[in-house]
Specification:
Radius of gyration: 25 Å
CATH topology of the largest domain: High-Potential Iron-Sulfur Protein, Chain A
Structural class: mainly alpha
Bound molecules: iron/sulfur cluster
Strand order of the largest sheet: 1-2-3
Strand content: 5-15%
Order of helices and strands: HHEEE
Number of domains: 2
Number of helices: 2
Length: 124
């Protein structure tokens, strides 16, 4: 087995440490960019989201995230044809920003653009 000189050892260690810090720094930088892009738009000041405990919201099977829909109660929501059924495409939705809007039916707060309820109808 060849002997490694102290100089070789230190050089290789320096390369390794430098490479690792660059990789970590690179990932950290790109992660922070991705995180900023994924940050949800905040609620407009003074507004609140519709609580899912709201009686109208409950009666309509509303969820702020359509993925949480009760598919036992609303199996049609799983149909491929309904994959774009979100509040943001609903006739009752008025956009406030990319994340939030007002619903003409559930008015106890704002609804998420990614929400859904059984009163959904396509915006014309
Ligand atoms: S009526 Fe439309 S906008 Fe209102 S909660 Fe239901 S799907 Fe969303």
């Amino acid at each position: 087995m060849p002997k490694t000189s102290r100089k070789d050892f230190l050089t290789k260690t320096l390369y390794l440490v430098t490479s690792l810090s660059l990789v970590e720094g690179g990932f950290g930088f790109s992660s922070s960019l991705v995180a900023k892009e994924k940050l949800p738009e905040t609620l407009p000041e003074g507004s609140k989201p519709v609580p899912e405990s709201d009686p109208t919201a409950k009666a309509l099977g509303f969820h702020q995230d359509a993925k949480h829909t009760d598919f036992t109660l609303y199996p049609e929501r799983k149909d491929p044809g309904s994959k774009n059924q979100f509040c943001k495409h609903c006739a009752q939705y008025t956009k406030i920003n990319e994340k939030w809007g007002k619903c003409n039916i559930i008015s106890s707060g704002l609804v998420s653009s990614q929400g859904w309820c059984s009163a959904w109808s396509l915006k014309s």
